[in-house]
Amino acid sequence: MLIRGQEIMLPTSMVGNYPNPRWWDAYSTRYWTGDQRPPDSLGREALATATAQQHSSSASRRLHMKLLWIPHQDWLGLDGQRERCLLDSWPDSGDELHILTWQPARGFGRPLSSFGWSTFRQGCTTVHSRPRIPNVMSRYVMGRFAQDYARGLWANEQLFRFYTRRLVRNLGVDVLVYGIGHKAVGLPPFDLPIARVFDYLDLITYPDVEAAYIANSDLVLCTSRVLVDRVQTSGKQGVYVPNGVSMSRIARGQRDRTRAELGLQGKRVVSLIGLTSSPSLFFVDALALAARQVPNIVFLVVGGGDLLRPIVARCQRLGLPFVATGRVPSNEVANYFAATDLGLYAGDSNAYFDAACPIKVLEYTAARRPVVATDLEELRRIAFPNVRLSLPDPAHFASAIITSLREPTEFADVSEFEWATLAQIVRQALVKLIQERRR
Prior knowledge:
439 residues; alpha/beta; 6-stranded parallel β-sheet; 16% strand
C-alpha cells in the first residue's frame, strides 16, 4: 500500500471469507469519508481514491447550510413527490431545511383555504405556508375554457417574491432551490445575493420561462441526462439527480391482500399507476388487443386526474375488464405495485416525455415487475432490462404487452436511485457551490 510516498506491505489474512471486489463499481468509495472503518469490500485502488478524498469530504460534512426550497406544487400535492422525498432523506441533521409553499384552494366548499398563513415542522424541515390567490381562470376551474398562464397570476409572483426575500433575510439563507412552480407562483427573485439552484423536474414548454430559469441560476439539478445535455448547451452546469425510489416502501406492498380486496385473484393484472400517459389512450386500445390473446387480463388504473374518466369510458366501450381506484394515499401505493403483473408507462413520443425520468418505471422495477413503455430517449439511456420499449400505437404496444407477459426477464438494480443516495448527491453539490461562492 502506498503510504506517504512509500510502498508499505501490510500483512493480512482471510479466514472464513472470500474475495469481494466491489471496488470496481465505486459504490463503497462514494460514501466512505475516510474517518470510518472501511467496508470489507473496499479494494486497494478504491481505498487510495477514498483516502485522497477524505479532507474534502470531511469539510463538506462540517459545513452546515441554511436552505430554502420553493417546490413545484402546493403542500398537500407534495406528498410522495421529489422535494419531500429528498428533504425527508436529507443526510445531515446540522443543516437548516425550509420549504416555502402554499395551500390549495379546495373548490367551492373552501375557496379561501389558499389564503392561510402558517409555519410548522414536518420531520427535519420547517414549512412556511403562505397565502396564494386562486387562479379562477386556470384549467383546474375552467377546464377546456381556461387561459394559458405561463407564469401564473402576476400578483402571486409578486407575493412569493416578497415571501422569499423576507425569509432569506430573516433566516440567513445560504442557498435558494426552486422547482418548476412558474404556473402556480411565477418565477422566483433572481436578484438575491445567495446561491440560486434550479431543480429541473420536467421539460418546460415555454422557451422564455425555461431560458429565465437556466440563465439566472448558478446550478441546475436535472432529473434526466437529456435535460443535462439541454442545460449544458446553454452554457450552464447541469448535475444529474434523477427521480428516486424508496426500496423499503415498495417492499412493504401486500400482493395477496390487495388482489383479494380488488377481486383480482387469478387475473393477469396490467396496471397504470399515476395516470401520466398519452391523452390519445392508445394503450387502452393496445390492452384490449392483447386481451384477445392472453386470457384473464384486467386493467388496474390507479390515480385520479383529467384522464381517469376518458380511460374508464374507453375501457367500457371496448369491453376491457378494469378496476379504477381513483386517488390513493402515497403510503398505500406500494400495494398496487405488488398486485401488478405488468406495468405500463404510455407517454407520447415527444420532447416532453423524451426528457422525463419516470418515477413509476423506477418503482415498478424496484417491485421487480416488467414494464412496457413508449420508446423514449431517457428510457433508452437508462436501459433497464425489464423495460420493453415500443412505438406508441395500439398494434406495437399490444405486441410488447403480450411478449412481456409471456417471457421471463431480468431486473435492473435501482439501489443507486434510492432517495437517501440522491439527497447526498444534492447536498454535496450545494455545499460545493456555497464554498465556491465564499472564496
